[in-house]
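Module 6 notes. Inverse folding takes a fixed backbone as the condition and produces residue identities as the prediction. Think of it as a translation problem where the source language is geometry and the target language is the twenty amino acids. Below is one complete input and output pair. Work through it position by position during the lab.
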């Protein structure tokens, strides 16, 4: 009987150790996963999620490496020299990100000076056409939200002062224009009402 009890306890201990091991190391790599509770996980040099023992990255070698870091408040980024961008734009892996005054990565709408930008859920700056909620917006190559007339692919579009793409009828500077469901301004041969102005 004693041998059976000892065997059972030994098996339980092995299961517990295996569970702890999976909890500590079972997170996948990438920039979208973080550790739970007070444990911080790091994503350095393309390696999967790992912890820094005594503040040192196991993949850093002699000179350190740049890292995404995460806690309950959000994501931030640190360079190999330990400096972290704050209240500025930063290009990382060919994508642009904005970090606030506390150094955390921003998401959603951002006003920088007189221009508005949109940052996706992963923090990357949006460019080109983007549907946000129920509305379409256009962001130029530098990420700034476009307003007014936009000519693209042989079509003309109109974006209101809040950036929303216009569909249907719209009076612009006293003239009535018609836009299809995709936002393209209708040419003269497509218009049926003479009251409307062709693009």
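Target side of the pair, the amino acids:
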């Amino acid at each position: 009987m004693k041998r059976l009890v000892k065997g059972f306890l030994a098996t339980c201990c092995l299961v517990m150790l295996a569970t702890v091991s999976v909890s500590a190391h079972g997170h996948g790599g990438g920039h979208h996963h973080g550790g739970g509770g007070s444990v911080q996980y790091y994503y350095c040099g393309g390696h999967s999620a790992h912890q820094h023992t005594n503040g040192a990255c196991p993949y850093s070698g002699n000179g350190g490496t740049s890292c995404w870091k995460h806690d309950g408040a959000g994501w931030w980024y640190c360079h190999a020299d330990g400096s972290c961008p704050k209240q500025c734009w930063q290009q990382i892996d060919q994508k642009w990100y904005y970090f606030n005054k506390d150094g955390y990565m921003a998401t959603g709408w951002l006003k920088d000076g007189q221009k508005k930008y949109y940052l996706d859920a992963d923090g990357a700056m949006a460019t080109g056409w983007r549907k946000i909620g129920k509305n379409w917006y256009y962001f130029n190559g530098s990420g700034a939200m476009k307003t007014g007339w936009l000519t693209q692919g042989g079509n003309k579009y109109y974006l209101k002062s809040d950036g929303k793409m216009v569909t249907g009828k719209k009076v612009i500077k006293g003239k009535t224009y018609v836009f299809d469901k995709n936002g393209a301004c209708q040419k003269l041969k497509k218009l049926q009402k003479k009251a409307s102005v062709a693009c």
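Reference fact for the lab report: The helical segments are 2-25.
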